[in-house]
Amino acid sequence: MHIQQLYTNCLSEAAYYIESNGEAVVIDPLRDVEMYIRLAEERGATIKYILETHFHADFVSGHLDLSHKTGAPIVFGPETETAFPIYKAVDGEVFRFGDVSIAVLHTPGHTVESTCYLLRSASGEPYALFTGDTLFVGDVGRPDLSSGDLGKETLAGMLYDSLTGKILPLPDDLIIYPAHGPGSACGKNLGPHTYSTLGEEKKTNYALQPQDRETFIKAVTDGLTPPPQYFPVNARINKEGYESLDKVMQQSLRPLGIEAFKNAAVILDTRKASIFTNGFIPGAINIGLEGRFAEWAGNLLNFTDPIVLVTETGQEEESVLRLARVGFENVAGYLEGGFDTWKDAGRPIDLIINVEPDELALDMPFDENLVVVDVRKEIEFGGGHVKGAQNIPLESLSDPGSMAYLEDTQNIYVHCAGGYRSVIACSVLKRQGIHNLRNVTGGWTAIQENGKIPVEKESAVLN
To answer: Measured between alpha carbons, how far is residue 327 from residues 213, 310, 311 in Å?
Structure first.
């Protein structure tokens, strides 16, 4: 038996390839499915089943394309309704491949169709549980996403029943393989690892501690921040279907000349933040490929506005692919030759001024128009921030109303934790006509290390 976790850091997503005696199962595949097909070919195996744990909200699954290319059926658990053909398994149903088997455990709570898959060895012993978003390392799936009209408390109660009735009775040495790791917004605060054992989770996971139903419901529903705005879009796509990735790539990877950019709806620049600040096309939004690119694109961009790309040479395909992973099929092409083409043609350019924390420290006591804007999440801000700073979380900048507190007459210093999000924020603010900006390099980390800038912990959240 061979198990391989295929982890994608920028989405905190784990897909799984499981193989026995020349037959394989793929669980929760990403939209770019060639990696699974290639892996099976290299190992001389045939993909027999494609198993989905639920309708994913944070990425577009590859179930349709993988099924089309391999002929393997798409399997969902009970309570699943789709707009395309699937095999809807019943609770307890067993699928055999090679010398092993996988049993369906319907575990509603994160969503109504959420299902775990229990892998048994050739001898029939429980070996691993693929938990999807039902159980994470150190956390459980949030119960406030896409499940029709059910409230989060109702779903949390269902999750309690699923955990206590289906998962907790399993052996402590059972390996837990979740669909997500640290950084995912599908839970409140996932642990640092991408797999665990049930015994370890019983010791350390707050949601698996002995507690009654009401206590559990309160524990998993308290402190939930609003989910990313693109989550309902992706859940709907996974339920209703989508265009094949091959066609999306073909339509999107079109080289464009400068004239095509003059009236572009959205110019997305995917170059590194450190490069973007030195010069970019006016009005461009920067979301660099080096960070959580797809997630921020889903949070800040419209799924219907035509997008044209500016990328580093050779990164055109990667940019389109990672946008497609979260459902963007509206890329109209990319600037041939990249930013250099624009600059060499003598077209106007914009830039973002970078400053070290030392400069902020020097300016703060004397500049009455100085405003520090912290674009970290509220929970990060609450743990410590520059004294008097305004907290405008980056995800809120998709709403122009979030900028109502800012004026172009102010001297605005923008920072995040390390510098990636603050450059995104500066590009969005400039697009909205706010230009008197400084990007504080190194972010909150560098500000703390500087030691000359007054900080506090009490909240001053504006959004």
So the answer is: 37, 19, 19
Q: Please, are residues 94 and 101 in contact by the beta-carbon 8 Å criterion?
A: yes
Q: 75 - beta bridge partners?
A: 51, 87
Structural class in CATH, domain 2-232: alpha beta
Beta carbons within 8 Å of 236's beta carbon, 6+ residues apart: 146
* Chain centroid, CA 324 distance in Å: 13
CA distance 36 to 27: 10
Contact in structure between 49 and 73 (CB atoms under 8 Å): yes
Q: Does domain 245-344 have CATH number 3.40.250.10?
A: yes
The domain defined by 354-456 carries CATH number 3.40.250.10? yes
Give the global pTM: 0.93
Q: State pLDDT tens for residues 127-183.
A: 999 999 999 999 999 999 865 678 999 999 999 999 999 999 999 999 999 999 999
How do residues 177-211 score in pLDDT, each as one tens digit? 999 999 999 998 899 999 999 999 999 999 999 99
Distance CA 150, CA 142 (A): 13
